[in-house]
Every structure is written in C-alpha cells, then in structure tokens.
Specification:
Length: 71
C-alpha cells in the first residue's frame, strides 16, 4: 500500500537508500558484484546514499519530523 500513498513511498525509498549505503559501508563485496540487472538497483541506491549523503541526511530529518508531528 506504500505505492498509493506518496509520503509512504518516499519513506520506503529513503529507507532503501540509507540501508543500501550502510550495507555497502559494512560489507562492500555484497553490493559491488551486482552492478547490473535487478540487483543493481541496490548498488545504485548505495551510490546515491554515499554521494548525496548530506542531502539524504536532511531528507531523513525532514521525514522524521513530518512522520512525528503530522500523523
């Protein structure tokens, strides 16, 4: 049901980016061997999380405040 609710979809995407970046920091071999194909999505999310980390962190804080105080 996160597909039909825009805020839930953004939360899922943001959590996916953060999780993939964390996994790549802890065990890079898990994501580096799958750069193409369906599992390449996780590698791309990890790259976004690494390169845009200040923006991702800002989005995490904004999302946290929106979840805590708007719902």
């Amino acid at each position: 049901s996160a597909i039909f609710n825009f805020q839930s979809l953004l939360t899922v995407i943001l959590l996916l980016i953060c999780t993939c970046a964390y996994i790549r920091a802890m065990a890079p071999s898990l994501l580096d061997k799958n750069k193409t194909g369906l599992l390449g999505i996780f590698w791309k999310c990890a790259r976004i999380g690494e390169r845009k980390s200040p923006w991702v962190a800002c989005c995490c804080v904004i999302m946290a405040f929106s979840i805590l105080f708007q719902q």
